[in-house]
Amino acid sequence: MTATTVHTTTMKALQLLGPRKTVMAEIPKPVTPDDGLLMKTRCVSICSTDISMFEGNLFPSEYPVILGHEYLGEVVDIGPGFVPPADGLEVGDRVVYWGQTDFGGFAEYRTVRPIFAGQVKEDVFWADRNFHDDRRAAAVKVPPELADTHASFIEPATGALRAILTHPPQIGDRVLVLGTGPIGVIAGSIIKRLFAPHSVASVDSSPDRNDFARRQFSDASYLPDRFVSDVEENTFDYVFDALPPIKGDEERDPRRMAMRRLKPRGKYVLYGASQEMQKFDTWLMLAKGITVGSAPFDVTSFPMYKSAGVIAAAMHMLTSGVIDAPALLSRVIPFGDHDRLVSVLENYRGTTDMKTVIDFRD
After folding, report:
1. Residue 324 exposed, middle or buried by CB count within 10 Å (0-12, 13-18, 19+)
2. pTM of the full predicted structure?
């Protein structure tokens, strides 16, 4: 720990002042929690949830807000009441966390009150988006073999794995993944390699992403029109929906098209986070008895200490190659390049890139 790290009282942070309005601000550096950690940011990958907040599809309780939650930090200070994980934790170790509403990553420092696998703790409160959250976050210590630029992928892998474990496919299921952005690829890779499906197909409007999906997990990938023309109704047992908010022709809505091709009593797993109302075909849900489910954010249903077990498993999926971290990395942008960072946020929906990592390292 250097003298600069100890005595610095301010830090730079990218603040969102309102939808699509950002500023690089100098703000107070956070104080180490008594039972938590102060971390110096190393790498943060951009997530579609960041984009939903940037675009105004998700709403903070107040502005300004600091985006970024796919986070890797280096421990620079440890609170006196902190309880370490079973394998210990020291200044200089790297940590990734998972927390439902815990933005704040696009800043040079942040704090976290972690729960590691095997620990049972909670600090529950009623969040401003209609669920119980925890002021603590599930966390994992990152092993040396996982590169900085790949380690922040542990967070989205945790989210996808929570959803799959809560509503798993059955052995031999025919699986469809809607949307082959990063979450779709992560979910498809996990299902293909660990859940013994009959097959895994995917749909995306991007030919490039369809090609990438075929290389990673997909037995058959379709553009939407080909999916409609080539795939019969009642084909799939299980759908994993990794799509962003959808607008447009209701008859061509990909969610409706997927439900038509889901078998009676099929399982439809919703992943994407948006407070913007989305349309689902309630007739098909009723007529077919489709089960629609998701992994609850509410910690009274899915406690954070259980997510701590999931994040540990997600980390091993990256280190073992179940999830191909090097293939997911599309580009790395220095945190100091404000204009380029904002350009990525503005153009995220129109790119075929996978993961863009913001690099805070000196």
Report:
1. middle
2. 0.94
- The confidence score (pLDDT) of residue 132 equals 95
CA dist 197 and 183 (Å) reads 18
Token readout for 156 is: 């989205």
Question: Is-contact 53 66, C-beta < 8 A?
Answer: no
**From edge to edge, which strands make up the β-sheet containing 236-241?**
220-222, 199-203, 174-178, 236-241, 262-270, 291-293
Domains of the chain, CATH where assigned: 3-158+297-359 (3.90.180.10), 168-293 (3.40.50.720)
Token pair in block for residue 207: 């030919």
Closest CA to 272 of 115, 123, 160: 160
Q: How would residue 7 be classed by pLDDT, with cut points 50, 70 and 90?
A: low
Q: What is the DSSP letter of 107?
A: B
Residue 247 has pLDDT above 80, yes or no: no
Per-residue pLDDT, averaged over 205-224, amounts to: 96
Taking all residues of the chain, what is their mean pLDDT, rounded to a whole number? 93
Strand partners, 27: 11
C-alpha span between 155 and 99 (Å, rounded): 9
